[in-house]
Amino acid sequence: MRRDVFQAIADPTRREIIGMVAHQSLNLNAVADQFNISRPAISKHIKILTECGLITIKQKGRERYCEAKFEKLNEVNKWVEQYKKFWEQKLDALEVYLNELQATNKRVIPLPPSKGDKKKKTNKKYKK
Known about the structure:
Layout: H1 5-9, H2 12-23, E1 26-27, H3 28-32, H4 39-52, E2 55-60, E3 63-68, H5 73-106
Antiparallel strand pairs: 1-3, 2-3
């Protein structure tokens, strides 16, 4: 089955594995030791990450090491970037609207007290 990078980052365990191997190359046992799940489960996560092209497995002597390959994350970056532009435009428009609303509220004349108010104050400004 062909997997994509979005499937890889959808799982928190896989995201954590990516974060771990981003800093340094780790052998499979070192990766598995960081989690409270079975080694076969970790192997499945690593297999998915490998199929997606986010990590590669290199054999060094008897050990197998995971190394990060971040070129595939550019797909995610492109996808996120289109929504970033969309939301920036929406938020900029909201800011303009709120500024206009705030400017018009400063010019609003306060209303006189209603007839139902208990306090009887006369407001000379609104007397006819």
